[in-house]
Amino acid sequence: MIDMRKREWLKTAAKAAALGLVAGSALVGCGKKEEAAKAPAPAPAAEAPKPQPLKAAWVYVGPVGDAGWSFAHDLGRKAVEAHFGDKVQTTFVESVPEGADAERVIRDLAAQGNKIIFATSFGYMEPMLKVASEFPDVKFEHATGYKTADNMRVYDASFYQDTYMAGIIAAHMTKTNTLGFVGSFPIPEVLRNINAFVLGAQSVKPNIKLKVVWVNSWFDPPKETEAAQSLINQGADVLLQNTDSTAVLQTAEKNGKYAFGWDSDMSSFGPKAHLASAVVNWGPYYIQAVQEVLDGTWQGNKRTIWGVKEGLNDLIKIADVVPEEAKKKVEEVKAGLKSGEFEVFTGPIVDNTGKEVLAKDVKADQAWKDQVNFFVKGVEGKVPSGK
Question: To which CATH superfamily is domain 159-272+313-370 assigned?
Answer without folding.
Answer: Response regulator (3.40.50.2300)
